Amino acid sequence: MRDISIARFPAASLALAMVIAGTVGAFVTESGQHPVTVVFWRCVFGALFLAAWCLLRGYLPDRTLSPSRLALAALGGVCMVLSWTAFFASA
Q: Which of 35, 44, 58, 60 could hold 88 in an S-S bridge, CB 3.0 to 4.6 Å?
């Protein structure tokens, strides 16, 4: 059986991403947890999933990643965490 690539269905991929992104705020509000707690656990589960995905797809270890690119990725991660915290605190 052939592996069906998700790239073959871009509209479905976008729709699924929008459903997930659109319901996150509702789940955070209904959980009653502090925004920092929600962001912490979101980062933990996201990091575990992303690490497993990268290992399974063969993206890790990446020996071509330079310290400057790693620093930029870390800076982007910090900005994303601050954005999530502000978003969840605004609800």
A: 35
Output phi, psi for 36, to 5 deg. -65, -35
Helix axes 67-89, 35-57, angle to 10 degrees: 140
Query: What's the CA gap between 29 and 59, in Å, rounded?
Result: 35
- The model carries a pTM of 0.70
Residue 64: CA atoms inside 13 Å, Cβ hemisphere, count?
1
Token pair 């995905």: residue: 53
Confidence label for 47 from pLDDT (cuts 50, 70 and 90):
very high
> Which residues form the domain of 64?
6-89
Q: Do the domain assignments include residue 44?
A: yes
